[in-house]
Each structure stands twice: as structure tokens, then as C-alpha cells.
Amino acid sequence: MSTTDIIIIAVVALLLGGGTLYVLFSKNDNEKIVEPDNTPHHDSTSVKVQLQAYERLLILTDRIALPNLISRVSVNQTGLSAKEMQVLLTQTIKDEFNYNITQQIYVSADAWSAVKNLKEQNMLIINQLANTLPPNASGLDLSKTLLEYLMSDKKGALHEVVGDVLSYEAKKLIS
Hints:
Elements lengths: L2 H23 L7 E2 L5 E2 L2 H21 L1 H8 L8 H18 L9 H24 L6 H14 L5 H17 L1
Helix pairs in contact: 2-5, 2-7, 4-5, 4-6, 5-7
């Protein structure tokens, strides 16, 4: 091998090594950068998306809160039976929840679990109270029964607790 061949091989090796190091150590702007203490630092786009998810889940929490749900759904629903109102209320909760189901990938497991528990708790309350009414009860009877229950039981304010959890986590992102 001549000196020229050795120099060419050395230059190629340096270029390949340098290129490999560049690829290994350069980061995509959209990736999380993990420091040695394993604390993820998010870029501003990631934080914005997460904040939007928390906002949407706060809206969902407000929309499926039983007092708000009852007043919104029962406004134009005169003449329904209690059974029909039960189906309408529970279906509305399911629809609202399913519309926002993808937000779970942007929020903590605890936040998503709180939203999911709110959905399940509200549906359980509606179904249990509807089952206590006589077969000929009206939708208005179910609405009144639900509102009376909410005024007498603290579980009816679960939406406030879930809202506080979501707000707290969103504020942690900002600070």
C-alpha cells in the first residue's frame, strides 16, 4: 500500500466516523431530550399539545358533570319516559367521552383515570337512580331524582375533583 492509499483510507474512515457520530448525537427537534437525571424536557410544541389535551378534558369534565348534562340534555326533551331519559343521558356521556378518547395519549395516566372514573361514576348514578323509579316515571322525574341526589351526596361533585386534578397537572406543565 502506498502512502496515498493510506491517506485515502484514513480520510474515508474519518468521514464515516464523523458521520456516524453526527447521526448518533444529533436529535430531532420534536423528540424529548432526556438529561442524565432522566427528567424529560419537552419542546414548546409538545407542551402546547398537552395543554390542549388538558383543556379538552376539562371541557369534557364540565359537559358530563351531571348538573350540566341534565340541564343541557333535558331542555328540549319533554315527554320522554324515565327509561328514555336514562338512555339519552348515558349515551350522551358515552359520545362525549368517545369523542375525546384520543386525549389520553397526551395526559398522565392519573388524569385519564380520573376522567374515566367520572364517566363510569356518572353512568352508574344515572342507571341506579333510574332503576329506583316506577315503570311509568317520566324523564322529568328522573332529572329531578338525579338533581336531588346531587344536592344530598358529595359524590355528585366528583366532576369538581376531576377538574382540579386536570388543572393542577396542566399548571405543572406551564411552570
